[in-house]
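FIELD: query
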Amino acid sequence: MSFSKKVKEELSLRISDARHCRIAELAAILAYGGQLIQDKSHLCLKLQTESPVVARKYFTLIKKTFNISIDISIKRNQGIKSNKTYILIVKDQDIIIKILNAAKHNIYDNTDGRLGNPSNLVTQNTCCKRAFVRGAFLICGSMSNPKKAYHMEFVTDDIEKAERLQEIIYTFSIDAKIIRRKRYHVVYIKEGSQIVDLLNVMEAHVSLMDLENVRILKEMRNQVNRQVNCEAANISKTVKAAAKQIEDIIYIRDNIGFGNLSEGLRDIAKLRIEHPDASLKELGAMLMPPISKSGVNHRLRKLSNYAEHFRKYKEEKIYDKKRNSN
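FIELD: result
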């Protein structure tokens, strides 16, 4: 089961004790998935979904809130293995009006059978806003596997419904954005911490903890990777520095000799050649008396400057010799 389905499974089991919250959730389900269609001379309120958990939640909300039962039919889709479509229909005209009035949907506010946004009255309370977002996610929301990426989205073909949902999510200090994807409008959130906040808003606490566990594990891995990369970079830097130091010391030994060096420089030069893998701290501990890491670094820098100075001197001598010969 995908992470998105796990979230919806958890949300489908969350039935609010407050009637106004159940109505707010029902209003969202109808707004983003309901249809008001003409069947012969009668209107029918229809919800069609491929998700059994959405069908179960819609049925439970209708039953518990209005104490009525609705017709459910199941259609197996051709050519799609084990995929079913659940069709839930209310045909009684009085009950349809009762449901739409309670959910603050205008019975005449529909285009091609689709219901528009419900009145703002249905989401006046914070708890009702939570329920509305929960209903919207059940019917048109999805979420990627957090092990791969952080992404939650709500897809609708109506810009006004997208903006309404974005506005409600904003009230919880969550920065949801809207993009156009072909003929659809997508309300999306990509930041892991804000997805956690929205799961909390929808009261999907088990999924929230699962996501937090994934985030903690990923953060630990990232931290370990950063430390490993940092240590690898430091080792590479140390190796390059040691190689340059040894190159300069060997140049001094082969071209000038150690006779003109002070005792301190001569001792550290010999140790550097004898122990090419040793750190500055380890080299300092080998001296008698021992000196600090900064002291070793100072002596090695003097040796490098000495070698560089002699290289330039030698180049100038060669240049003068060539010029005089010409």
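FIELD: remark
Residues 85 and 311 are 83 Å apart (CA to CA).
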